[in-house]
Specification:
The protein has helices at 2-38, 79-130, and strands spanning 45-50, 53-57, 64-70, 73-78. By secondary structure, it is of the alpha+beta class. Helix 1 packs antiparallel against helix 2. The longest helix is centred in the C-terminal third of the chain and has 52 residues, at 79-130.
């Protein structure tokens, strides 16, 4: 039973990780799409302020963006370089997602194999106490 519950906990953690990675991939794709919109001749753009709040504003330089590279460090990059960085992150996230999906499959298979064994042990236990 302990192994079964451990596997269930592991599966739950993996599913949470998968959902988090999926959210990050969607966020990156949305960001790249937003960057593509910068180049279009728009008078003003909508900036997210947080907590479902937005403001209209103007972009002074449509050729550069600021990209966080880790550890709170932000660098100014050209639009294309910035998109390259984001697309590489997305690819890394997709690789991690594949690994997590494989782990989910392995843990699910292990749980499915243990299920009948646990049922058999429960049946034997009930027969012993009834007999």
């Amino acid at each position: 039973m302990f192994v079964y519950r451990t596997l269930e906990s592991r599966l739950e953690a993996l599913v949470k990780q998968r959902d988090l990675i999926n959210s990050k991939i969607i966020e990156i794709m949305s960001t790249v799409s937003s960057i593509d919109e910068i180049g279009k001749n728009q008078e003003s753009v909508l900036f997210k302020l947080g907590s479902e709040s937005y403001a209209y504003g103007n972009i002074s330089d449509k050729n550069k963006i600021l990209v966080e590279i880790g550890g709170g460090i932000v660098l100014e990059k050209s639009i294309e370089k910035g998109k390259d960085i984001l697309n590489k992150r997305k690819q890394e996230m997709e690789n991690v997602l594949k690994e997590i999906q494989n782990n989910i499959l392995q843990v699910s298979n292990a749980i499915n194999q243990l299920g009948p064994e646990i049922n058999e042990l429960i049946q034997k236990s009930q027969n012993i106490t009834a007999g």
